[in-house]
Amino acid sequence: MMRLLVSADIHLGSPIRSVALRNPELGDRLKQASRDTFVEIVDLVISEQVDALVLAGDIFDNGYPDLKSRAFLIAQLARASEAGVPTVLIRGNHDALLDHKAHGNLGPNIHLLHKGAPTVEIGDTAFHGLSFDVAHVAKSFLPEYPQPVPDKRNVGLMHTSLDGAPGHDPYAPCSERDLMAHGFDLWCLGHIHAPFERLDGPVLVIMPGIPQPRHFGERKGGTVTLVSLGDGTPEFERRAIGRLGFSECSLDLSACSDQQEVLRNLRDTFLAVQVPGRDMAVRLYATSDRHGADLVTELATEVLDSIDGVFLDKV
Known about the structure:
This protein is of the alpha/beta class.
């Protein structure tokens, strides 16, 4: 049995510009949330005693020389390594900081797969992957992938838009049918931030999703996937993860006779979305024929001063 924790699209160092302009405190929370969530991933790797951590690209958000983010990644993967868990990863289209030629190796027990070294064997499992060398790849990587290693379980890592997905540019596009026919037992994919699984006979394809969503359009993320590879069909389990969630709330203030009543309604709404131990960003859709958006925003800001863990994105 081989047990894996699969993740992708960590996007360490994401600038969170639009949110930060509206609410700098929320912007800071989001930046920290991506780090805290990755710590939580490594904690889960250790507590579950998996056989490997698999990261299918876009660990970083951009190619800027953010050595603080790189140092953070190395420290966390070293923590997994010291617990006996190796990491297998590939570069996605955002991952210039993972360039082994420019920045050096990540360390022992951390296997970055690329054209020069596309395969690593861990126990009875062969992991195969190709990395982005440029920011955009318009053709499928699949023809360049190694063939399955005989008498081994075979796991593929790929950063791809597959057949295409709304809101995602076509990066290394690949037919799902061709992927499943390649001969691997499991494909671990990155790039599309919403999680999904495809099972065709003994072949499993998983997209774990973004573990820490960065904005309201990524609310389908917030997960990683645990996979068990045995003699039969691979088994999988999604795990909720992430330190900051997003909530859209509708509030009809038309019947409020005064601003104190508006305050009470706002307080009840924000308390209802509060989650112990987790931050929540709120986008409020308010209806009123007598209270303007600027006033409601200021009243909401005052209310949130006394409610922990809830942050206003905008009204």
